[in-house]
Each structure stands twice: as structure tokens, then as C-alpha cells.
Amino acid sequence: MTVFAPDHAHAREFRDALGSFATGVTVVTIASPRGPQGLTANSFASLSLAPPLVLWSPGKFSRRHDLFAEAGHFSVHVLADGQKSLADRFTRGGDQFAGLEVTRSPEEVPVIPGVLTRFDCAREAAHDAGDHTLVIGRVLRVETGEGAPLVFAQGQWGRHLPG
């Protein structure tokens, strides 16, 4: 067992420690004045059942941070096992929407077909949170399918294996 204070000298150790918490992998999409935008994010969580709220947190280091933090509507696409290539499309330098058959939500947000689950949201609030912004969304509708989620933990991609 290692004990340390999460200061600048231990930044890598802190990041590795956070990596011990397995997360699902999502792609958040928005409509913007610069066209459709998407961003791979594992900073997604449920927040409230009544009212139905979720949150995610774009990093302030992203050139597109303000577009995502200020978007009035967004969709969170939960990726299924086997959709790592889709996650890669929406990372820095990825192909984004090139070649994808994208539809639009009633709020005109780009919708990626074939994902495990999608949450269409209206931005409820945004809060400063260090080097990220916490974006809270009110869930307007959910589309869900069947399958195992894509999981990321300890720097590795994998899948959830029910016991």
C-alpha cells in the first residue's frame, strides 16, 4: 500500500490511482456553430432519478471546451464492448463524424447509431471544477439496447464480465 498527498510531485501516481476506478466510455455530441462536434469522455455519471439528471465534465484544456460546456443540448452515447474504434474517432485528431451515418435528435444534436445507450439532455447547469467544468443535464429521452459496455480502467480497454 502506498500513501501520498495528491500534489504536483505525485501527479502521475494520482492519475494512476484514479485509474483503479473502472468507468464506462461515452461519446458526447453537440450541435455547434462550427458544425457537429463529438468528444470521447469517461467522466459521465448518473446524478438524480427525480428529476432525471446526469453529469459529465469536459476538460478546460480542450480547444472545444467552451462549445461543450455552453451547449444547450447534448447527447451522451454509452459505447458497447467492441466499439473502441468509435471512441478513437472522437479523441484529439480522430475522424469524428467522417463516414458515419448520423441522424439528429429533435433538438438537432447529432446522434450516433448503434451504441449501447443514448441519453438526450438539456443543459441544466454548469459548474467550475478545477481543470474541468461539471455539466449537468436533464435527461429528455433515453434509447437503450442490449449488450456489454466498453470499460476503461488502469489504462486498459475492456468489458464488464457479469459474475
TrEMBL record:
Pfam families hit by this protein: Flavin_Reduct
Gene3D superfamilies given in the database record: Electron Transport, Fmn-binding Protein, Chain A
Record InterPro entries: Flavin_Rdtase-like_dom, NADH-dep_flavin_reductase, Split_barrel_FMN-bd
An example molecular function term from Gene Ontology annotations: FMN binding
Keywords noted in UniProt: Oxidoreductase
Residue span(s) of domain Flavin reductase like: 18-159
Protein's name in the database: NADH-FMN oxidoreductase RutF, flavin reductase (DIM6/NTAB) family
Species this protein is from: Paracoccus isoporae
High-level lineage: Bacteria, Pseudomonadati, Pseudomonadota, Alphaproteobacteria, Rhodobacterales
